Input
Amino acid sequence: MSLTTDITDFVQRIVSAMGMSLTVRIEETPDGTRINLEGEDGGTLVRSGGEGLQALQHIVATAFRRQLGDDHRIVIDCNGFRKDKDAELRQMAQFIAEKARSTGMPQEMGPLNPYERRIVHLAIAEDPTVTSESIGDAFMKTVIISASR
Output
């Protein structure tokens, strides 16, 4: 059995044990493995800002970390929720970058979890006029966006 099949089966067993009927599709992207869950029961995972989705992603990443290695990322999405949130985060990062440029003052974004911080840092990295850094010593950190000098 392939690793992709193992991951699909694992996720399917978890959502079934939670009493949800969802279709699991795996897609390989340049960033890593994207697991797309689809179905009417998906609302349970995306409630409260997607906390259930985040927890499921953490469980799957932890379960398969050894087989995937540290460089390979797993992203779990449900009915396009994360894709929409990622686009929203990128947009917000660009807005805050513009504010940092126009005021000359560093701007804060957060607190954000590691996945959200990565989205913000990647969005900021596309713009040579601004920089970003994470501050804080907890799981949730703040991203500081500053105009480049």
